[in-house]
Write a structure and sequence with these properties.
Order of helices and strands: EEEEEEEE
Largest sheet: 5 strands, antiparallel
Strand order of the largest sheet: 1-2-3-8-7
Helix content: under 10%
Number of helices: 0
Shape: globular
Number of strands: 8
Length: about 90
């Protein structure tokens, strides 16, 4: 499975999507900051410049059912894992 990009940020920064199999994908890219919201689980993730990523949305690889923010040692970089309906 090859990596692909979804909508770039409004600043032109790529958002790379890596298929991990079994309905799991990693989304990552450059961002100096991001917002996260939800009650018991993460309902949305909004990196600097977008795109706004939320549970229930479909970015061309399936409807997102779960978002997990992952640690990334790189400065000014985000990494999330999403699960989609199969």
């Amino acid at each position: 499975m090859a990596n692909f990009t979804i909508e770039s940020s409004r600043y032109g920064d790529k958002r790379t999507v890596t298929p991990n199999g079994h309905g799991l994908y990693t989304i990552e890219g450059k961002s100096h900051y991001y917002r996260v919201g939800g009650k018991e689980k993460v309902d949305y993730f909004d990196p600097e410049g977008g795109p706004f990523i939320s549970v229930g949305s479909d970015y061309g690889f399936g409807k997102i059912t779960e978002i997990v923010v992952e640690k990334d040692a790189r400065e000014n970089h985000f990494k999330i894992r999403v699960e989609v309906e199969q």
